[in-house]
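Repro:
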Amino acid sequence: MSDPSPRISDPSISPAERYERGLALKQTGLHKAAIDQFEMAAVETSLAVKAYAQIGLCYKMAGRYEEAVPALQKALNVTTASAKETVQILYVLGRTLESLGRGAEALEAYRWIRREDPGYRDVAERIERVSTKRPAVGVKKP
């Protein structure tokens, strides 16, 4: 039986085309297929930041927050990231960490944003809320 999607592994498809396909797949809710396309697009240095950020967003949209964190961190580690991209990715990372109950890490991301762009979105309120938040009931500390 032949592969129903032979073009997925087609080496003639450029990383830019992979990125565009990933966006289209993400928009239709096909997150796994989108992640595959973004991973192939990330080989192109100029697309790496955006591709890894999109991978993180796909995982987040699929409710896979723990997997979104390393993808977003990978995007932050790409040396070609602009200050604006860094702030945007940090915000998504902070929100993701916050939803996972990882307040200290979220606070670190939000504080980094505040240093780069003090008026960015609701970062000041998030810093205030996360820094005064008590641990969730029933969560055991190691």
